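Q: May I have one protein plus its fold?
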Amino acid sequence: MVGPLLSPTCFFAYGTLRRNAPMHSLLEADVRYLGPASYRARLLDLGDFPGVVASESAQDVVVGELFLVRAELVEEVLARLDRYEGPAFVRREVQVRGEDEGDVLAWVYHYGGDPARGRLVASGDWLDDAARRLS
């Protein structure tokens, strides 16, 4: 157990940066996997990648993974992720729920574009939704 309300050295991945996802290599050497996590937001499928947008509804839950970024590399890792995510995404410090950690502060990227561009992923799990569409 890591402890309640960590500093923002945690990162919540919900799409292409998750383990077994195409861009996880951007993270894997510099983080420790803490476990499954969830975040109250709406998940949109934007084609080749997902995005989250804020939601106040308890029904809207995004499924993802929580990572602890090595403290000495936080700035470097976040700069790398900012470049990858690009101008359409905004990094925010939010509270997520770790399956083992409880509520923690973590960085998450929110989609800053038009939400109407995306398809709502009702399950909240982009990898699961993508696997179903491909099968």
